[in-house]
Amino acid sequence: MLLIQNRLIPEVARSSRGILIPSFVNKCGSIGMGLIPILLVERNATLSQSTWVMALVKGAALLGVLSGGWLTDRYSIRFVLIFSFLVSGIGMLMVPFVSGIALIALFAILSNFGQSMFPSTAQLMVRKTIPASQRQEAMGWLRTVNNLGSISSYALALLFSGAGSMMLFLYDGLTSIGAAAIADKTIPEAKVSESDRAKIPAGESSRALRVGSTFWAFAGFISCFNFIYELFMTASAAQAQVRLGSAGLVLFSRMMLVNTILCTLLALGASKFFKNPKRVLPIGLLLMISGCALLMKGNSNWYYMAVFIVTLGEISFTSLSSFVLMSLLPKVENSGSIYSVAILMQMVARMGGAGVAFWWIQTPHAALMLAGVAMVAAALGWLGLTRQEAHLLAN
Questions:
Q1: CATH number reported for the structural domain that contains residue 171 in this entry
Q2: Number of folded domains that form the chain
Q3: DSSP string, 10-24
Q4: Domain range for residue 281?
Q5: Per-residue pLDDT reduced to its tens digit, 68-117
Q6: From CA 149, how far away is CA 172, in angstroms rounded?
Q7: Among 128, 49, 121, residue whose Cα is nearest residue 87
């Protein structure tokens, strides 16, 4: 409700509240996906069945990201967002009421498919409906309300955990339905493709090609960040458990909570303060790596200093990365599909980072290799931004 109080909230927040309010409500209920493994155990699923169900559910997320961008090229963003909320909510409401493993998998896949459509579609809405001068701050607001919603979902999960998983599944589904109802009232009718469908004027094709190539280079740069971030964070959790036992799990859980809270508090300020991507992005990447290197020591005395450094790096990078990527998006007919592929690249990179984390723990010299990868990624990103700096705010 705070977002509706015009006297307390800046103009940029009021102008983007059509997406902020339903986003917050939806995030408050993002509990169900984490409960699917518990439900499978309760329904006596075998190890093989559980593995296949979770693999298919994760795969649905990738398909959902691509579908979100593809649909925004063909329908209004309002329709796509409401559709994603409804699909997610209906799937989650059905999950606890079916008994067969196949039906649980079906509705879990449906729900995760709907949830995964939201990120790229919400960012495309910011690009379409918010003036260019306010987009960076609007992205900061979007990150802030998403983090607030996540914190609320964690708290509510703890509060209602004693009532069993049924209550949490119902809560998740109903909040998604509620987000759809709010979106129906707050999101205006607008099509992303109205401006992007325009043909490129004669003589501008070479410029569009340069901007497009920079977009993909920068998407790869962000993907490198996501790969390294997930790699270090997953490896840090495992290393803490190996070295500190049960105390390591407690420390890592506290670290993640502190990280989420700090990101929530600092995201909006960072979006206003950080303006130079050529300086901020490489520094953010190196800060994140430095903080994660401290986490890998597995020493409890370093954990809270490390999480602060990681958070500074994460905030520094994310305060500009999505905004710059959005600004580099070429004005072509299938811009939504192109943007969703860039988001998909980041998701795959995070999965890859988590997948090789345990190998990193067991290979002493891998840290040198990762440091080299990070430095090369930072250098390529800096060079790309330097060459195309004039086009960053072209959209």
A1: 1.20.1250.20
A2: 2
A3: -HHHHHTHHHHHHHH
A4: 205-386
A5: 888 888 888 888 888 998 999 898 888 888 888 888 889 989 988 988 88
A6: 12
A7: 121
